Amino acid sequence: MREGVSPPKGFRDFPPEDEILRKEIFARIEKIFQKYGFDPIETPIVEKWETLVGKYGEDTENRLIWRFKLPYSNKEFGLRYDLTVPLARFVARFNPRFPFKRYQIGRVFRYEDPQKGRYREFWQCDVDIVGENSPLADAEIINVVIDIFGEFSFKNYTIKINDRRILREIFEKFLEINDYSTILKIYRTIDKLDKIGKEK
Length: 200
Hints:
The chain is 40% helix and 16% strand. The chain contains six helices and six strands; from the N terminus they run αββαββαββααα. Strand 3 and strand 4 form a beta hairpin. The mean pLDDT is 88.
């Protein structure tokens, strides 16, 4: 493969045989979402910078966001790093009837060092029930995941469930860690445990 025509580091091309397969996989996943009554939405890849950084401002976590200014303008924008922040903006804008059951499959971007299994551009698949605080909603999401795994004949898997509200209570009340940037670093370390190994 010629180096001069390769995409930037952390980005990938997909030849027809790969793209056809991926579209087929996405279609099968979407069919399950729709079976459970979830509706598709689409949001822009580009968001206003203030939307992406939210209430935490110039936090360390925001260094992972691809940030840029318009030519001849001071307006700042960024590439979405997940599908959750755009969902929150979408809900605030359209004020849909709750519970709002939505799904979205789309590209997201992270400005981090590429390594095996980690890219700067990748696909994220989100399914959410907004405005429903019942355990039944959580159970429905779990059932959706189980059905998707069954669709692709996955076996011997484990579904891990976490709730950051519990972790934050532990950090703040028992460990007396109140600095949000420190808490974010701990979250990221926990998220990477399976990849880097507990020994490290």
